TrEMBL record:
One of its GO terms (cellular component) is EMC complex. SUPFAM superfamilies: TPR-like. The lineage of its organism: Eukaryota, Metazoa, Echinodermata, Eleutherozoa, Echinozoa. Residues 73-199 form the EMC2 TPR-like domain. This is ER membrane protein complex subunit 2. It comes from the Eukaryota. Part of the endoplasmic reticulum membrane protein complex (EMC) that enables the energy-independent insertion into endoplasmic reticulum membranes of newly synthesized membrane proteins.
Amino acid sequence: MVLYGPVWSDWVRYDVRDKLRKWREDKVRNSTETAELGEYLLANYRRKLGDEVWPLFEQVSIASLDCGKLSLARLCIHAVREQFPQSSRSKRLHGMLEEAEGDFESAKETYEEILKGDPANGLVMKRLVAIHKGKNDIPSAIKELNKYIASFMSDSEAWMELAELYIQEQDYSKAAFCFEELILYNPHHHLYHQRYAEILYTQGGIDNLEIARKYFAQAVKLNSNNIRALYGMLLCAYHIASSSKSTAKKKTENTKYASWAKVQLDYKYKQSEPKDEEVLGEMFDRLAITSGN
């Protein structure tokens, strides 16, 4: 698709403009539709958009990069750079284009140049992380992301990304720390409790299993439909009850916890779709435990 097309009526122009504006304000990507609608709007109504044309160019640039429409991205980014040659935002867009073209070294140089004049530019710091991830250089991505978090500690998405990077490196203790921070920021998010518990379960050991069981239970309390957390609770309780290192009291308690989780999963099993039944059935087949134990 090129930047040419039939002229739309004014009411269509206003409708499309308002839709794209709302997506910008709400930080919604909708990349495919944004690229298509924005391309037509810029082709036919650029002169009527006033100053709004520049944020629209930026929006369409990013959407085009998301969709792999590099020719459209080049046109939009070129327009922005001609209008704002010294702007860090136009330079960032140029760096993103270099990334999309596979020229990671040039993109890295572009971003580092921006950070010399604007060291707290979070968007550019994140692009450096993306470059290292694109090169599969996870240690460097972790280093850059830690720099970003030092300045933007309340960014939950960054903490989540850092945790996943640590998991890739099998550094589970640091991944667990990331989820501890996430739970502190948002203690009512069931997935944070679940993911923290999964890391503890992966680390193993009776102490970790006991803590993991509690966090799986909290995830279930926050969201009773969290099947993964229920299953995690069942596994933790089952392993604790089966361990020779557990006291008689712990074995009794955890047998009850496992039985309760099994009853809940049985109930979910009966209400599930056929494909879900198969998954849950495989879970149960791997466990030598019944609700009567």
